Amino acid sequence: PEPDPVLFRAWADRWYQDYRTQVEVSTYANYKYTLQALEKHFGETELTDIQPMAINDYLTGLLRQGYSHSKISKCRAMLIQILDSAVANGLLDRNPARSAKAIRMEAVTGDLLPKPKDAFTPAEVETLLTCLPDTPEGDGIRLMLGTGLRVQELVALTAQDIAEDGSYLSVNKAVKMVDSTPVLGPPKSRRSIRTVPVPPRFRTYALRLRKRAGKLFCIPSHKPGEPSTIEHFRKRFRALVDPIPNVRRLTPHCCRHTYITALQGKGVPLETIARLVGHSRITTTDGYLHIPDSALAEAVNVLEADRGKGRVSP
Length: 314
Fold this sequence. Notes:
Largest sheet: 2 strands, antiparallel
Order of helices and strands: HHHHHHHHEEEEHHHHHH
Helix content: 40-55%
Number of strands: 4
Shape: globular
Strand order of the largest sheet: 1-4
Strand content: 5-15%
Number of helices: 14
């Protein structure tokens, strides 16, 4: 007798349960939202009835509904994983998701290249240092500008993580969101566990955070004893930064871009910058650089200098 048909929902749920031990708790919790989207569309469909064209139609539908490139890519990637496991367990002869199309970035944004995050200019940094309030959130933003901390690293910071003289920070944990609840866990990668020197002009802010925190987290939250949620700090960031004149409305992560760009502008090697910010690959660090056109124009002027010395042929 032929085996009973297996519905996508039943197999996807089984795959999700089996996947629990393969990723961090926060990642696993976030996966369920993508899974819910897939099950809403394919849930009652038999695995053997899912064809590449049906997947193409689904992804195109997400695009027309205005979903982000990231969301669409996550849906396609999860479909591939779920149906790969079905092939490995003899439920399918081939994986139709591997024959489905990938949505290109320009189809979503209309741009040939994705828009990179920006960095605050030196003038904007000075304005922020001057105009931000002397509150834990204000000092936290200043510290991100001077150390390149990720938001999830900043909100996990405690007094014990800051040197007594404010000269360095110990990054050894980060806040992960699990079902909208902040949970302490390891940083993003092994390289993210690091000691970050604090420049002298930023040590005042580190020391103020250390003194105010006591035995609690440096960035306060709604619930004493618990770390702030990432979204709560982002809202506080916008509330503090947006009203400041002559400063663009950028995101908290742009402070990290600003830090990396400033170091590169001072001639610090990319390998050193990657170590400071906890990047596993230099190519990742390179993607954070925002070199202004004026700096590029100044760089090529060395050719004219060499010409004057007779080193470059006319």
